[in-house]
């Protein structure tokens, strides 16, 4: 692998800005959904497609990102992705009917899906292994902080302005990196122009990952017994099995599962999946607790989580530097110990728990998570040979999408089941009817956090097996290069 003495910070900054805006938009509409329902006169299940559709497009395109990154230049991918994103944002801002708004969100998602894998691959190509921790710490700002501040900002805007203002604010933010990409960006990765995408693999991937994402995301709304839920999950599992089988047989797979021959990458994937499931407990359950039980407004609910997001933003670069010096194991074990203790605290919530207590402990929990996510992911990627970096990055981003959907569905199911059981017990004991709902819901939330504590303990145990990874070498010596490539640009 050829490294520059000085990485191309200018181009990385352009990519960083574009990825931040694209990922930030993923959660921007969550708070705005009720306002959109009123304007377009649609029900909750219909409006939810603005979120579900965005997620599905991501789940379909992210696995294919390894092909695009190897086939086309980073410049052409970035310009194409940001152009789609800008177009989707513009259409959404002026959408006259709901169908147009939904189509605009799909176009947005098509652009956003390629940004995270592209940025991750450029970071891996531009920095040597001994400096990747610091670089990926900056990357953590995009991955974790951007979606975390979306609901807080949108809560303020929706309270004072129209939901269309969200897109009008995002539009100039997206135009800036697009224009910089057109006029300033160079190609810093060598790509293989001989690659051709396998159409059947793309279809199977779409059915597999799309089915799993939609099925698990729908479980909370429709219940596990609904044919739509278990049918799409079954189709997803079948599609995924066929997809993996085909990838193992292809000479040039769309998504190379050979990455799991590398033990530290396989271990990092397992830890990330388990931690994502546990992490989603607070992201899902805290808004329910503070808004439904404590009666706190959506705006204040978003503000409650903002210090945690800012904490992760502050810690990501610091954690990256510590990773370069000490490795992933000590950081991750310390962070996960904090996650386990803070998650257990949330299993002891009561009607008297104060706003500041919740904010403080949530911030501490985010501090712990900031010490785990990027170090573990970077350590796993460090073991891959350079030509497998696109596949490793695509795999990580895909698994985050899928594990998030699965974790959300499972935790909501646990909460609802426990709440129903507690409600029946309270009713039988003669409790006042007006207090039963809140008490039962609180019991369900506490029990779910208790389950999440044990999930976090599983991640802590797995982390004890982590070792500092050393990069493998490609058999054919083909590598990415961090040197600018003076080749004709192949447009995506």
Describe it.
The protein is globular and about 70 Å long. It contains 18 helices and no strands. The protein has three domains: 184 residues, Growth Hormone, Chain: A; 56 residues; 212 residues, Up-down Bundle (Growth Hormone, Chain: A), CATH 1.20.1250.20. With 492 residues, the chain is mostly helical. The C terminus is likely disordered. The two termini are 25 Å apart. Helix content is 75%, strand content 0%. InterPro entries: EmrB-like, MFS, MFS_dom, MFS_trans_sf. It is found in: Cell membrane. Its main location: membrane.
**The level-1 CATH class of the largest domain:** Mainly Alpha
Query: Pairing-aware structural class of the strands and helices?
Result: mainly alpha
Instruction: Summarize model confidence as the mean pLDDT.
Output: 84
CATH topology call of the largest domain: Growth Hormone, Chain: A
Unreliable stretches, pLDDT < 50, 5 or more residues? 475-492
Percent helix: over 70%
Q: How much strand content do the residues show? A: under 5%
* Number of strand segments: 0
In CATH terms, the superfamily of the largest domain is: MFS general substrate transporter like domains
Over all CA atoms, what is the radius of gyration?
22 Å
Number of helices: 18
Short description:
By secondary structure, this protein is an all-alpha fold. The chain has helices spanning 9-24, 33-40, 44-47, 49-61, 65-71, 74-94, 98-126, 132-160, 164-184, 199-222, 227-249, 263-293, 298-326, 328-346, 355-370, 373-382, 389-428, 433-463. The chain has 18 helices and no strands.
